[in-house]
Each structure stands twice: as structure tokens, then as C-alpha cells.
Specification:
It contains nine helices and six strands. By secondary structure, it is an alpha/beta fold. Bound molecules: flavin-adenine dinucleotide (FAD).
């Protein structure tokens, strides 16, 4: 997903003349607006610095502790309208100090213990599509903020075709989960949004996300535990 928009930029198409006409009729003529580049987003000076970062690298491996500008921006807030407007204004004040990506349960536990010891806030990050400020860390009383990217927890752990149940790791995104389940003739059935929105298995929507296929698959709140 684009860092400051909904959807996949590779699938974007120009608005038709009819749509532009409707927008114009409602709001006045549509004009192109300036686009902030990811590199121009302002992020705070990170508070989690060396030698603490080295300790995290010892736990997870060098390549799974990210401190670069792009990683911090991509893990800032979610996809609500206010989140997107802030990002488009170049406001990255809620950026985490670093992004950590554990590979399994033991590494998640190790990071949690480390954060608890260091009094560093840890924010789980699945698909980053939250629209209720869930990814914006509370910073008071903390020595820093890390984003816990769940992208490496992406396995289908168990599947029972007879009962139609499956255990998915928390970081599996909708399309990835669909691909794995389809090998067993199963589907989440959450179309079209769930498959095109990269929300993760570990963060099912709090509101019943009813889609056209709900009649056969049930709503998200009925099939997720
Ligand atoms: C186009 C679009 C359509 C949407 N449609 C709906 C809808 O129909 N119904 C609805 O309810 N919501 C909807 N949403 C909101 C959002 O997609 C859902 O809330 C979704 O479940 C968030 O999943 P995520 O993996 O992106 O979570 P994230 O945004 O990464 O995280 C959301 C919150 O959950 C926490 N979290 C994430 N993973 C875990 C985990 N494994 N363990 C503990 N905490 C975790 C995060 O720290 C954060 O607080 C929509 C959003 C978009 C952009």
C-alpha cells in the first residue's frame, strides 16, 4: 500500500471525465495538488540510539532492525483521513525510533522483555491500515517507541479442511492468507475489500466488515478468533 494513500499505486488509473465532472459539480473545479515525497516527511530525532540498537540487533539480526527514514515513515500512523492528511503535509512526528521484525514467538517475547526493561513503547504493526489511531504511540513516560512489524510471521500454521478452520500467523496479510488457503480449497471469503486491503490476520476488524461474499463466508467478526 502507498505510504500516504489507500490502495496499490500500480493499479491507480486517472479519473474519468464524468467523475471529474461530478467532483467539480459538488466542490468546484478539481485541481492537481502538490505531492509530498516520502524523503521530505519530517520525523523526530530517534531516542532509541546506540548501544541500545546493537542489543536489538543481537536479538533479531542486523537486517531486522530498521532505522532508515523510509522504514520509519512507512510505520507512522495508519490510514485514516487525518493520518493521510498529516502525511501529505510532511508531518511524521509520530514516527517510531526504529522498526523491528521478529521471526517467531521467541523473538517477539525477547523484544517484549527488552522493551519492558528499557521502558520503550512497542506498537504492533500488521498491515498499517488502522483508521482509529491504533498505530500512534503514547510517548509520555517512555524512553522511546519501536514499531513491531509482524511481516515475518506469515505462515499458515494449521489447516483442517473438514471443519473449515485454519490457524494463521499474525502477520499474514489478506492476499497472502487467501493464496495459502486456496491451496487447500478454502477461502476467507472477504471480498472484495479484504483481499485488496493489506490488513493482517492478527488484527481482524473490530467492526463487522461485511462484503458481498458474507452470505457464504460470514462476517469477519464471526469467523475470526
Ligand atoms: C480501505 C479500508 C477499508 C477498511 N474497512 C474496514 C471495515 O470494513 N471494518 C473495520 O472494522 N475496519 C476497516 N478498516 C480498518 C482496518 O483495515 C482494520 O481495522 C484492520 O483490521 C486493521 O488491520 P491491520 O493489519 O492493518 O492492523 P494495523 O493497522 O497494523 O494495526 C491496527 C491496531 O492493531 C494493533 N495490532 C496489529 N496487529 C496486532 C497483533 N497481532 N496483536 C496485537 N495488536 C495488534 C496495532 O498496534 C494497532 O493498534 C479499513 C481500512 C481501510 C484502509
Amino acid at each position: 500500500m502507498h505510504w500516504a494513500r489507500w490502495g496499490d499505486p500500480t493499479e491507480a488509473s486517472a479519473l474519468s471525465a464524468a467523475t471529474l465532472g461530478l467532483v467539480g459539480a459538488a466542490f468546484g473545479p478539481a485541481e492537481p495538488c502538490g505531492t509530498t515525497q516520502l524523503a521530505d516527511v519530517r520525523v523526530p530525532v530517534p531516542r532509541v540510539q546506540e548501544p541500545l540498537l546493537s542489543e536489538l540487533r543481537d536479538l533479531l539480526g542486523d537486517e531486522h532492525v530498521l532505522t532508515d527514514h523510509a522504514a520509519r515513515v512507512r510505520h507512522t500512523r495508519g490510514k485514516s483521513t487525518t493520518d493521510l492528511l498529516k502525511m501529505r503535509a510532511g508531518d511524521g512526528c509520530d514516527a517510531p525510533d526504529a522498526v523491528v521484525a521478529p521471526a517467531d514467538h521467541d523473538q517477539v517475547s525477547a523484544v517484549l522483555e527488552w522493551c519492558s526493561r528499557q521502558r520503550v513503547a512497542l506498537v504492533p504493526f500488521g498491515g498499517g491500515t488502522s483508521v482509529v489511531d491504533g498505530l500512534t504511540a503514547r510517548r509520555e513516560d517512555y524512553a522511546g517507541v519501536l514499531a513491531l512489524d509482524l511481516c515475518r510471521l506469515n505462515s499458515l500454521v494449521h489447516v483442517d479442511v473438514v471443519s473449515g478452520t485454519a490457524t494463521l500467523e499474525a502477520g499474514l496479510l489478506g492476499p497472502e492468507a487467501e493464496a495459502l488457503l486456496s491451496r487447500h480449497g478454502l477461502t476467507l471469503g472477504h471480498f472484495p475489500s479484504r483481499s485488496s486491503t493489506p490488513a493482517s490476520a492478527g488484527s481482524p476488524p473490530p467492526a463487522p466488515a461485511a462484503k458481498p461474499q458474507q452470505a457464504t463466508a460470514g462476517s469477519t467478526t464471526s469467523w475470526s478468533r
